[in-house]
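Encode chain A's predicted structure.
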Amino acid sequence: MVYAREVDGKVLTLIVSGKLWRNSMVMMDEESGSLWSHVNGRCLEGSYEGRELAHLPSVQTTWADWRRAHPATRVLKKSEEILSSRYERYFADQDRAGMFRTIWLQDRMPAKALVHGLVDGPHAVAVRDEVLKPGDEITVDLAGNEVRVARAVDGGVRAFAGDGGELLVRTSFWFAWSTFYPNTAVVGK
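Encoded structure for chain A:
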């Protein structure tokens, strides 16, 4: 998820706090020391408690898909070659998936399955990433309303209400999504 960093006219510097909440990273702003959920952008503790950062549209995609859709993209090249990632073993090990309450949710889908989630009050639906190929569109039920979920050529997933208004889509691993929204409906087990 990507968020605007401005709250009450102040631009916040968000860093990793080293804490987890519901199996997900917690951010901290350096200005006030407030703690923020990276899943929903809500301030959990501190001066801004209860406030929510504005969500910015973003796309999680492969470089090949992005380049195909946006061939004029320019890339900032680092001066040093990146040889590895400290998260390589984590992503390779399908059993490493959060710390709390994940076992009972894995019967619905693998813990590290990537999902695109939609929320309407207490209702939530998670669309498994593999369900949508570039150019595909499906209809899902969210709180009794039909919602169109589509994947663009660049890999981005967007959702639209019946009136055509765009809805917020949050992309997450299943184990994190399901701890925030344990009663979520699932599309594409």
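The mean pLDDT is 86.
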